[in-house]
Design goal:
Elements (H helix, E strand, L loop, with lengths): L1 H51 L5 H22 L8 H8 L7 H17 L7 H17 L5 H20 L2 H13 L4 H22 L18 H30 L9 H15 L8 H6 L7 H20 L7 H21 L8 H17 L2 H12 L5 H17 L5 H12 L8 E7 L21 E7 L2 E3 L12 E7 L3 H11 L11
Antiparallel strand pairs: 1-4, 2-3, 2-4
Helix pairs in contact: 1-4, 1-5, 1-6, 1-8, 2-4, 2-10, 3-17, 4-5, 5-6, 6-7, 6-8, 7-8, 7-15, 9-12, 9-14, 9-16, 12-13, 13-14, 14-15, 14-16, 15-16
Length: 520
């Protein structure tokens, strides 16, 4: 009987791994086409404005076209809220059992809407939409077979990681981001499936984009020890401004709704019209910020220039995200961090404290720090920048800046921005009574209240039932005498109108409690 059970577990694991490979390959193709289409549309926009410099009267026709495009995209986003924004909160909602969506309508609408919104030049990133595109692919492939609810969620998580991997060519960081920030589940089968999908997607994307690092910024390989003191100041600056970013981006919806005369459908129209002067004078800044990050190192060491770039990127990033169009904040956060790192270093250069050749280093370190404190995912930030830059020579300075920035935001009661966005998103959904049962998975962390506790001794919420315990590569049938261990992944069935609050309670008991609210 024991041998038959082990064979069944191995078969289930093998089936999940093969599914993860397929999810990764398909997601890699979908996201690579998404990236290519965005590049083509954005390139066309830049060529159009180069032409307008010769024939400026054509700007009138362009403005009229932007009004029509904005109305079309605005209607699409308002009619189908599943495709709004980055898509990461929606994916996190699916993985925590608080939300669900149909995969095909979201897939094609997010794909087409994202190409037009990001390709138009708005300061939106492709990475969040790529994560949601991958999640829909994983969901669709999983639903075409006979899978358990857990396998379905693993498929969604695998697709999400594959989408980010294909968007950034960063499979390791993509795996960690989904596990650390989105799914909060580190069971062996989950991380293995997610990692395999990330690798498969990266294998496809490099066929389109090559092996060159996504952010090929020339920099000094060795960072001098005496400059580490300056990294502390950089981390503090990033933490303070990162908390400010959180406060603004999480209040955009509330603030914009106070402008009663401007309907949400018209938000994109206003942004696209404001984009015209930016595209006329500063075409390098268009889009998520890849091109700007790569060129920052070549700009004059002018405090006014870098400060102006930061103000422009910050303000118009908020305007762009406030349109509620398909597009994320992932890459815009990195570009803002890069500009802040450049600004900080330029100040040091003008004070004759550091030579200019280290400008690129500060740009790289600040990207990690700014993303780490806003998302509150420092490990992901460090690995992500390491993979995107293509060198492991900067792990220590990256870690110093990322950890300090993280601690500053934590001291200011900042929450992970995507978790806070999920809470905002769920509050906007129509109230729906819970029908039937829902299931959740949670992994027990070391030192958590559930570690070392027998199932019969813990006061489980009313209507909850532990269906299975995943321990290592095996499964444990739960009963009252079962002692829970760190690393166990629990599959729990919940019912009743308080299922959402029960989920939060159980995650806290497992050591995965939500951070303090983003609003303090």
């Amino acid at each position: 009987m024991r041998k038959r059970k082990l064979i069944g577990v191995r078969y289930a694991n093998s089936r999940q791994i093969w599914r993860a490979i397929v999810i990764g390959l398909v997601t890699g193709l979908v996201v690579s086409l998404f990236r290519l289409a965005i590049q083509a549309v954005l390139g066309g926009v830049k060529q159009a404005f180069a032409f307008f410099h010769q024939q400026p009267l054509w700007l009138l026709a362009w403005a009229a076209m932007m009004v029509l495009l904005g109305l079309a995209l605005g209607n699409l986003a308002q009619r189908y809220p599943d495709i709004k924004g980055s898509g990461i909160p929606q994916v996190e909602g699916q993985l925590t059992g608080q939300y669900d969506e149909e995969w095909w309508p979201v897939l094609w609408r997010k794909f087409c809407g994202g190409i037009l919104a990001i390709g138009s030049g708005l300061y939106l990133g492709r990475e969040g939409p790529s994560i949601q595109l991958g999640a829909t692919v994983g969901q669709g492939i999983s639903e075409h077979g006979e899978v358990t609810p857990v396998e379905r969620r693993v498929g969604i998580a695998s697709g999400a990681a594959a989408g980010l991997s294909a968007a950034f060519n960063a499979p390791i960081a993509s795996t960690l981001f989904i596990l650390e920030e989105v799914y909060h589940n580190f069971s062996p089968l989950v991380w293995l499936s997610v990692f395999i999908s990330s690798l498969a997607a990266n294998l496809v994307s490099i066929q389109f984009f090559g092996l060159k690092p996504d952010l090929n910024v020339p920099h000094e390989t060795l960072f001098p020890l005496h400059q580490y003191w300056y990294l502390i100041g950089l981390g503090v600056l990033l933490g303070l401004l990162g908390r400010g970013y959180q406060l603004v981006v999480l209040r955009l919806g509330k603030w914009s709704r106070k402008i009663s005369w401007l309907k949400p459908t018209w938000y994109p129209v206003l942004a696209l019209l404001l984009l015209i002067p930016i595209a006329w004078w500063l075409p390098t800044t268009l889009g998520g910020g890849n091109e700007l990050i790569v060129k920052l190192n070549t700009l004059p060491a002018s405090v006014g220039l870098f400060l102006g770039l930061f103000v422009l990127r910050f303000v118009f990033s908020m305007i762009s995200y406030g349109t509620e169009l398909p597009g994320g904040i992932f890459l815009p956060i990195l570009s803002l961090g890069a500009v802040l790192g450049g600004l900080y270093c330029v100040i040091l250069i003008n004070l004759h404290l550091v030579p200019q050749r280290y400008l690129a280093n500060y740009i790289i370190y600040a990207m990690a720090g700014y993303f780490a404190c806003i998302s509150k995912a420092p490990f992901t930030a460090i690995l992500l920048i390491t993979e995107m830059v293509g060198t492991m020579a900067h792990l220590m300075p990256l870690a110093v800046v990322a950890v300090i920035a993280y601690l500053v935001v934590d001291a200011l009661n900042g929450a992970p921005v995507y978790a806070a966005m999920l809470a905002n998103f769920m509050h906007k959904q129509p109230a729906r009574p819970l029908v039937g049962l829902t299931q959740m998975t949670t992994t027990i962390f070391t030192g958590a209240p559930l570690e070392g506790v027998k199932i019969k001794d813990y006061p489980w919420p009313t209507g909850s039932l532990i269906l299975m315990i995943y321990r290592g590569d095996g499964e444990v049938i739960p009963h009252g005498q079962t002692t829970l261990q760190a690393g166990d992944t629990l599959l729990i069935q919940l019912t009743g109108p308080k299922a959402a609050s029960y989920q939060r309670q159980l995650r806290q008991a497992a050591g995965q409690g939500q951070e303090k609210g983003a609003n303090g």
